[in-house]
Structure formats: structure tokens, C-alpha cells
Amino acid sequence: MATARCLLRRLIPHSTVQFGLSKCRRSATGHSPHDVLSWATRGGAAALGHSHDLGTIEVGKKADLALLKNDDSPVSFPLLNPHGHVVLQAQRSDVHTVLVNGHVAKYRHRLRGIDLRALRDRVGNTVEHLRGRLGEGEWHKGMNPEVPRAKTIEQSRFGTEQPPAGQ
Predict the structure, then answer these.
(1) Is the pLDDT of residue 7 over 50?
(2) Which of 94, 103, 101, 99 is nearest to 61 (CA)?
(3) Among residues 56, 59, 61, which one has the least CA distance to residue 41?
(4) Which of 51, 61, 69, 85 has the highest Cβ tally under 10 A?
């Protein structure tokens, strides 16, 4: 990947591609997509006290992996910055394959080894049970919480300054 970036910069040194690559490196807070991905993987394992068996891809560690691929997504190509793509662009619909402890749990965007119809029935039964226990009034309040109205602030396209004369 680094070679491709260097080649791309030599071929198109002042392009929007180069601007996009350099912009993806660090945010205003000074953190890169690589930092964020590291926090989610190595950092998550450390927070759980499982750095010895989770967080990185190494021999002897559990193979819990999510593989991303979505050829139908316009944000999936060109893939110039993999870390930036995962952190800033990828959606759950981009998860092609999931391995849990080395076993394939999802492949080609579909869960494996799960009876979704039976699961939907169980979830539906649970919802109906809770709805019956709460009563229709409490259920409705919980499903439709009161949301404070947002205050709209008028702002001209010129910010706080007055528009130039004649516009």
C-alpha cells in the first residue's frame, strides 16, 4: 500500500488524491484513522485484560476478524487508505465475512448457522411479552419519548458580516 501511495504521489503530485491522503493522516485532534483502529483492536483487548489472546492477528491468538468488502458501494473504491476507509467510510453492510474464534459466523453478507426465522419469532415473542407487562400506555411512551424541540438559529451565508452591497 505504501508503494502505491508513493507511486500515486509521483504520478499526480498536486491532485485531490494526494490532498485526500494527507488529510486522512491526522484529524484536527491529531489522531489518525490508524490510531482509531488500534484503539478499537489492541486497546479494546487491553481494556478487557485480554491482550494475550485478542487484539492483534498473531499465531496463538483467537481469530476474531471482520472482513470488509462491498463491490456495490461507491465508497469502496478506489481504496487508497485502508485505515481511513475502515474508520471513516465502512458501514455494517460492508461486512462480508466474520470469523469468531476462527469459525465463520458470516459469509457473503449472510449469517451462518443461525435460523433467522426462529430468531425473529423469539424476538417478536419477547417484544409482545414486554408490551403486555408494561401496558399499552407505558409501551407507547417508551417507544415515543418526548424529544425537546431544537432551536433554529438563523445565519446568513455570509456569517456574521453583512452581505456586500448590491447582493
Answers:
(1) no
(2) 101
(3) 56
(4) 85
